[in-house]
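Appendix B. One record, verbatim.
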Amino acid sequence: MVLPEDDSLYRAVADATCRAFRQAETILPPDIVAALRTAAGRESSAVARHELSNILENIALAEKLALPICQDTGVPVIFLTVPPHVPYSHRLLLAASEGVRRATRDVPLRPNVVSPLERKNYGDNTGPGMPSFHVSPGDILTVTVLPKGAGAENMSRLAMLLPTEKDQIPKFVAETMLIAGGRPCPPVVLGVGIGGTFDSCAALAKEALLLPIDTMDPFEQELCDAVNALGIGPMGLGGETTALAVKVRTAACHTASLPVAVNVQCWAARRSTIEVKW
């Protein structure tokens, strides 16, 4: 797509999207780095401490060299907040998609996006339904990116529990990580969605991954403790830190249902928000 020379808003969205991906892919958020350092300081297992030390060295080198933190640069998940004075149209999404193509070329990002059945690679991390967009109203126009690698995403789960099974939520969350084991490159961050509908519950879980992890409420801490009690540890090699944090988002739901979704995120919990100015 070529944007008109005078289309300043949409050029700004494309630029902001590209910058957000560059930042997310090369610089891990401070709260994630702090949690990894805290975990390294409290681990009693020498193997776990060594793995966390390797992770922290990897993070430092990626930022210093301005290179992606992980070889799996993920698929593009984009959250847009759109204020009332900004026209929301398909062209806004096209502009963000252009930013993804630019980031794929310039950062660079590994071309991960393929057609689901033919497995044809589109070559630029865009395609039908991709990027994955989440749009909500806001006071300012922002682009938030959440590059999502497959190793963690593949371990995510959703259950339609009965309302009487509310006390089974910690078990479902811990069971999800038990099944995952070391495959999602722990220590992980788990986004948990509770309520809504079958589809919106999964979106809640993904949105929970945008929340800062430097604090957890008592319920989130309960879920995190249940996961850490599994002893899977960093990179699945054993230890006290299987999850850095569990974050929860909820929504109202039908009286007869209790949807619960767990979106698994690896230690490279990449996210970045850029305000769009034009």
